[in-house]
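re: that complex we talked abt at group meeting.

here r the seqs, copy pasted straight from the sheet so there may be weird spacing, ignore it
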Amino acid sequence: MRWGKRAAVAVVGVAALLTASACGGSDDGGSGSTKVEVFTWWADGGEKAGLDGLVSQFGKDCAGQEFVNGAVAGGAGANAKTVLASRLQQGDPPDTFQAHAGAELSDYINAGQVEDLSADYDTWGLKQAFPPGLIQNLTVDGKIYSVPANIHRANVVWTNKKVVTDAGITSDPTDLAAFIADLDKVKAKGVQSPLALGKDWTQLMLFESVLISDLGAEKFTGLWNGSTDWAGPDVTKAIGDFTKLLSYTNTDRDALDWTDAEKLVMDGKAAYQLMGDWEAADLDAKGFQDYAWFTFPGNGTTFQWLADSFVLPKGAKNAEGTKCWLKTVGSADGQKAFNTKKGSIPARTDAAPADYPKYQQAAMADWKSATQVPSCAHGSACSQGWQGAANSAMGAYSTKQDAAALQKALAAAAQQFAKK
Ligand code: GAL
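got the structure back, here u go
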């Protein structure tokens, strides 16, 4: 679905109003509200299925509170973040909104837009529930401001099994040269654009995966913490490899959201798509079963992670109800209800893999031994300003293909936004 069709549609739905409060209570800061407006970009498919799971757990846990769906459609929050920014600026926050752990969350913290939840972490026993590295990514100056719902993996290639098999490919490529050889095999079978791609942020994801292959995990992470030079020859090489991959993609990419590109794979018009593992849930939700996946070729055991978390904005109308939502998000039951449908793995360390679909079982195993790197396209590596600059540099490159200009723009963005 194109975002044009979905834009500006704030999907508003209401879940059951229940009685007898377990954690709802009547302390709503005086506003009298028992509504909890949950602002996300999870409006369709697997994303909506995940949200629905969480909402049903919220209904059980938070009697007396009413879920209000404030979702604004558009992958990676392309539309939602703009709406949210203007609401926050106007002093009209939703009761809670999703924010990625890491640099993106720090933006909201530094702007003073979200409340400190450290005391609630103690009450709810969350410090022990999440891995220490994640806690570190959520903490600013010793305080914790959000509750993570999951861990997603970004560097995964999703395949249409039939298209791949028809091209005579029998094993997964493990480096870029092998991937390109496979893309050629699929193309030789008459599939014009074997690698499905969407607009700017999806191009940034593909480029980040190429950077991981060409630079390795440590130097890749250094791009975001200032220790790797964006103007260096290894980044130049990665731009060359990315350009080669672009030549296998659909030319209408700049008009497509991730779900449009996913449809090319489902329809057999493409063999592959690099996308985060919300794609597993979305393919499941859409009833497409003939898919497989592999880690982006050359990434080895690197797990490019991101985490969706929920906050309590300053000035939320129903702080008490929102706290109950946050408690559900962090709970074992909430994480199971959400992640079994969302394609992600639970942020909590006490989940039972057997409760999860096949893909997530594999991801849980990988997560344990993986080398972790963050994602800029999904806010764990870079601030929103940096992400915006990177997205527009990628969009410009998609049309003009000026490699020197791309590298210069990315180096300038790092110069402007990297923490000194
Ligand atoms: C990410 C988000 C995921 C998924 C994806 C595609 O930013 O963390 O949960 O929703 O966007 O929309």
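couple things i noticed - Residues 200-225 form the longest helix (26 residues). The chain has two domains: 7-152+307-368, 153-304+376-417.
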